[in-house]
Design brief:
Number of helices: 7
Largest sheet: none
Order of helices and strands: HHHHHHH
Distance between the termini: 28 Å
Radius of gyration: 14 Å
Oligomer: single chain
Structural class: mainly alpha
Shape: globular
Helix content: 55-70%
Length: 134
């Protein structure tokens, strides 16, 4: 989900999918709102399938794209669905995460934290961290 802006339908669908993914990570509604930079009312409308997300700005659309990219990287890295959903909540001791979970970092709400988390998760597949995980 990179490049140009999405039309209203794509924005709405993308928001719903991103929220489902984030919910699968066991994120709170507040964390989801911070990750996607949306209001609680937008979160509520999207969760109730009330056509929310039709007027997302480019920053919000980019955040949706990063969440989808993180999910794709996790699905490629881990064979076990529990790890796909659970990894964002796992404490990570590497230099970037410093004993925090990817979810904690993303929920700080700034774009660079979301982007850097996406980059680190994408690297897992490249370095073969989870090849034996099932």
């Amino acid at each position: 989900m990179g490049g140009g802006r999405f039309n209203q339908e794509q924005s709405s669908v993308g928001l719903k999918v991103a929220l489902r993914i984030i919910a699968g990570w066991q994120a709170s509604p507040t964390q989801a709102c911070r990750i996607l930079r949306i209001s609680h009312s937008t979160y509520r409308r999207a969760s109730q399938d009330c056509g929310a997300g039709r007027r997302l700005d480019q920053d919000q659309q980019q955040r949706i794209g990063l969440v989808l990219s993180i999910h794709a990287s996790l699905r490629t890295t881990f064979a076990n669905q529990a790890n796909v959903k659970g990894f964002p909540g796992f404490i990570n001791e590497n230099e970037f995460f410093e004993g925090r979970s990817p979810l904690e970092i993303m929920a700080q709400g700034d774009m660079i934290s979301l982007y850097e988390t996406c980059k680190r998760i994408d690297q897992l597949q490249r370095i073969g961290v989870a090849q034996g995980s099932s």
